[in-house]
Amino acid sequence: MHHDAKQQMLAASNLDELYPVIAANLMTAGWHKKRRSLYPEPRADYQPLHWRWDHGRIALDQAGRWIGTELAERRNLLLYNPGGASGDNDYDTVRTLVVAYQMIKPGEYARSHQHTPNAMRLILDADEGCFTVVNGVKLPMRTGDFMLTPGGCWHSHYNEGKRNAYWIDVLDVPLVHRLGPMIFSESPEWNQKVESEPKEHPFYFPPTRTLPALKALAASNGVKRLKLETETAMPPLDIGMFHIAAGSTYTAPRSTASSIFAVISGRGQARIGGLSAEWTVGDVLAAPSWNAIELGASEDAVLLEVSDAPVFHKLGFYREG
Ligand SMILES: [Fe+2]
Same structural domain for residues 19 and 54? Predict the structure, then answer.
């Protein structure tokens, strides 16, 4: 074989004859490659986008007529970005994160499982009786609560209330897809044994914990941002809650990091790159890398931001421009 390759290379009398011979030996010419590997600035593979919760809720309620309890743990709507490097993405919301609206009906539960991706939930609408169990710790899921199920933790969700429960899921699954370390398993036991039911927990951020801390911060041009203590549990992500006073605007320059925003209260306008949108409670905004962000509040607003900035800071790839 090696002998043949040498003979074929030596037999080439010009570049066009050489290319197929070197390609057959899994080499390609750097001066002749199909795609640029270096380019002046990050590519805008993903689009800035806005999803409305009133649309998401109707779609979930409609789907709930036909998607039964056996698929309850997947009765969610993925907020996908039709961009993506291949141009046919139907999963990622931004390059590193996926966001979904999820609904479970009374009497339903999602089987206990664990996976390497980090996950978190912002509860949009839930009555008493909804809860998550994370590694044996029972945490309530009430309207406005935010909670973490960090990678590798067993988790399961229950609706023992009387009404449908709705929440927003955010996971770093696309980051795990890109880097490769996906490991997922379902518990052989459907239900997790509840070992404790604490009033406070590092993974649990009810409004009674976050809103007073947010209010206590000093505002900068009408904007406050509370960084939640999540980075030990979920190292790739920076999670913050914004308070934007009515009439004020939060601005961020374009950067190599990507974010998603979920609206907890209030309403306003967004300009993210070329996107202009009006947002209100339960809506989701995608701010892919290299898009400047402006979020203006027309009434006092609280938003959750999940950002992949720590990945870029840790690797030395964080840039603004
Ligand atoms: Fe999960």
Answer: no
